[in-house]
């Protein structure tokens, strides 16, 4: 008999909600038309798209026309950053971001550097946060776009995006503000207008919807150049036949999460606090970033000196507990974590960090089991490394 699996890697990806899987499967099998087709099957599929747009625009408190469906969070970030930079390059060629962004943002910025744009990468404090003052200090007349993530995927830092957005607009209303909300959507209220955001990126597979679907909010009047060229779907901004089943699934998953947002946030915070109380009692174990209600409810980053993260990850895996080392969501290539570096993690601790990330599908007993496993494994593994 296999032991119960405890999945604590929800910032990498999530299990699809059963009702979402059911809906997706129904669309695969029954409403499988191309939404651009003029016959009944097309109209059915088009209706699913419209329904999804209405649901998601209700959650984001915007108009359905402000939403573009993409294939993932990475595409949403790329379209926002590269699409807006190229469309607005006559106004300026300066962009601002932070050193702790996901590669979906950082690599899009690097691409723009290659095209002659100038990028300013802001440092963060020990908790991984950037301040509105830091942004406005370097904001120029020719700054066309600022990109700051809402919630950091590695340590769960929550950036003061509403304050940053307000500060940008007060100084230069023409500067566009992009918020990568991939780790925040479904766990926090995300209302672009309240964040003063012109662009907001979301990903389906982080919210219990299938992989292969994302969303980009684009505010009224924001000029954006498409990255994909073809049949002219979605107003020509994102050619390609829409992933109807994935889009409908993403909307249903979002609906379910936003119906119980406050209670679920409380549960996630309670699980985090309960786990940390136990984990921090293990000698030398420390938490990266803030851990209270001003942090992400679902992300826990632990430094465990004397134990390599990879070894601990596999030891936990042997017990059916799945976590990640530092950040697992960019790729499985070994890489240095830009976030851990940016918050000043000492060199000798860079390989000693694991991330646990919860979801609404976890229960308190999962946290008890994970904490108990760590309390047993860490001293045992340290005996091998420290003798
Ligand atoms: N932005 C953040 C903050 C993320 O954590 C991720 C994925 O982990 C992405 C963007 C990319 O999303 P996707 O995996 O859907 O491409």
Q: How are the strands of the largest sheet arranged?
A: 2-8-7-6-5-3-4
Secondary structure class reads alpha/beta
Task: Please give the radius of gyration in angstroms.
Answer: 21 Å
Number of domains: 2
Helix content: 40-55%
Task: Return the CATH class of the largest domain.
Answer: Alpha Beta
What oligomerization state is this entry in?
A: single chain
Q: Catalogue the ligands.
A: pyridoxal-5'-phosphate
Please supply descriptive tags for the structure shown above.
about 375 residues, alpha/beta, Aspartate Aminotransferase, domain 1, Aspartate Aminotransferase, domain 2, four-stranded antiparallel beta sheet, 12 helices, 13 strands, globular, binds pyridoxal-5'-phosphate
Task: Describe this protein's structure.
- This protein is α/β, with parallel strands linked by helices.
- The chain folds into two domains: 6-15 and 260-382, Alpha-Beta Complex (Aspartate Aminotransferase, domain 1), CATH 3.90.1150; 18-258, Type I PLP-dependent aspartate aminotransferase-like (Major domain) (Aspartate Aminotransferase, domain 2, 3-Layer(aba) Sandwich), CATH 3.40.640.
- The protein has twelve helices and 13 strands.
- The protein has helices at residues 18-29, 40-60, 73-87, 103-114, 132-138, 161-171, 192-195, 244-259, 261-279, 309-318, 338-342, 364-386, and strands at 6-7, 67-70, 94-98, 118-122, 143-149, 176-180, 199-203, 214-218, 286-287, 299-303, 321-322, 324-325, 353-357.
- The chain has a seven-stranded mixed beta sheet with strand order 2-8-7-6-5-3-4, with helices on both faces. The chain has a four-stranded antiparallel beta sheet with strand order 9-10-13-12, with helices on one face. Strands 1-11 form a two-stranded parallel ribbon.
- Strand 6, helix 7 (192-195) and strand 7 (199-203) form a beta-alpha-beta unit.
- Helix 1 (18-29) runs antiparallel to helix 8 (244-259).
- The radius of gyration is 21 Å and the shape is globular.
- It starts with 5 loop residues before the first strand and ends with a helix.
- The relative contact order is 0.16.
- The model has no long low-confidence stretch (mean pLDDT 96).
- It binds pyridoxal-5'-phosphate (PLP).
- Pyridoxal-5'-phosphate binds at residues 72-74, 77, 102, 104, 149, 153, 180, 182-183, 203, 205, 214, 329.
């Amino acid at each position: 008999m296999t032991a119960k699996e405890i999945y604590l890697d929800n910032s990498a990806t999530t299990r699809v909600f059963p009702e979402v899987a059911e809906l997706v499967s129904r669309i695969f099998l029954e409403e499988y038309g191309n939404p651009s087709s003029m016959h009944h099957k097309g109209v059915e599929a088009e209706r699913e798209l419209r329904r999804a747009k209405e649901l998601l625009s209700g959650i984001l408190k915007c108009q359905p026309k402000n939403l573009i469906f993409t294939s993932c969070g990475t595409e949403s970030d790329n379209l926002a950053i590269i699409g807006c930079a190229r469309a607005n390059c006559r106004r300026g060629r300066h962009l601002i971001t932070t050193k702790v962004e996901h590669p979906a943002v950082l690599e899009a910025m690097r691409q723009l550097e290659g095209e002659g744009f100038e990028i300013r990468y802001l440092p963060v404090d020990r908790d991984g946060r950037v301040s509105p003052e830091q942004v406005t200090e370097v904001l120029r007349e020719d700054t066309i776009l600022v990109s700051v993530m809402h919630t950091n995927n590695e340590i769960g830092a929550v950036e003061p995006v509403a304050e940053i957005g307000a500060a940008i607009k007060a100084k230069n209303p023409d500067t566009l503000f992009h918020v990568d909300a991939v780790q925040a959507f479904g766990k926090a209220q995300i209302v672009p207008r309240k964040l003063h955001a012109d662009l907001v990126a979301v990903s389906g597979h982080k919210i219990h919807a299938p992989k292969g679907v994302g969303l980009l909010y684009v505010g009224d009047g924001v000029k954006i150049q498409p990255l994909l060229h073809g049949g002219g779907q979605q107003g020509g901004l994102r050619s390609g036949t829409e992933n109807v089943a994935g889009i409908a699934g993403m909307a249903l998953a979002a609906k379910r999460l936003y119906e119980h947002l406050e209670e679920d946030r409380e549960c996630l915070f309670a699980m985090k606090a309960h786990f940390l109380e136990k984990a921090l009692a293990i000698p030398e174990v420390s938490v990266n970033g803030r851990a209270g209600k001003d942090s992400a409810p679902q992300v826990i980053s632990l430094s465990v000196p004397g134990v390599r993260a990879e070894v601990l990850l596999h030891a936990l895996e042997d017990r059916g507990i799945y976590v990640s080392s530092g950040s697992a969501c960019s790729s499985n290539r070994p890489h240095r974590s830009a976030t851990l570096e940016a918050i000043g993690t000492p060199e000798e601790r860079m390989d000693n960090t694991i991330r646990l990330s919860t979801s609404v599908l976890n229960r308190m007993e999962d946290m008890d089991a994970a904490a108990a496993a760590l309390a047993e494994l860490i001293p045992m593994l340290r005996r091998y490394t420290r003798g």
